[in-house]
Amino acid sequence: MITAIDTNVLLDILIPNDLFFASSQAGLEEASLQGSLVICDFVFAELCIHFTSHSECDRFLDDNQIRVEPLVREAHFLAGRIWQAYRQKGGKQNRILCDFFIAAHAHVQANRLLTRDRGFYRKQFPKLNVVEPGQGR
């Protein structure tokens, strides 16, 4: 089982969020017991701003046994198509293309996505296995 992780789950742990820390940590631990953990390069970029050095960010990922993967072309294509349809239907402008890359990576290159933003991802990527921290599955 390969679990892709959304930025929000990692930030809940990295910058302890009183409301979500425990469930995000438990979700990450549960996912690691079921297989490997990955993030796409876009999540990596979003994480980098929270570290003072590249090696510090790498250490955080290594300590949590999370590997970084670049998106394959199929995932880029899928993200672009779904984002385009979303925008044509009047989707909110606060949803950036990066959100679609994160989901497409999970859909094409992993078995599921661990995120707190399950409603959005389930609606835009109905075939994606979306798991919320603390909800199992």
Strand content: 5-15%
What CATH architecture would you give? 3-Layer(aba) Sandwich
CATH top level assignment? Alpha Beta
What is the CATH superfamily? 5'-nuclease
Number of strands: 5
Q: What structural category characterises the helix and strand content? A: alpha/beta
Q: Approximately how much helix is present in the residues?
A: 55-70%
Strand adjacency order, main sheet: 3-2-1-4-5
- Cα end-to-end separation: 12 Å
Radius of gyration: 14 Å
Give the count of helical stretches: 7
CATH topology: Rossmann fold
Largest sheet: 5 strands, parallel
The sequence of SSEs as H and E is EHHEHHEHHEHE
**Quick one: overall form?**
globular
The total domain count is 1
Average predicted confidence as pLDDT: 91
Uncertain spans: none
Q: How would you summarize this macromolecular structure in one to three sentences?
A:
This protein is of the alpha/beta class. The chain has helices at 7-14, 21-34, 41-48, 54-63, 73-88, 97-109, 118-124; strands at 2-5, 36-40, 66-69, 112-114, 130-131. It has one domain (2-131): 5'-nuclease (Rossmann fold), CATH 3.40.50.
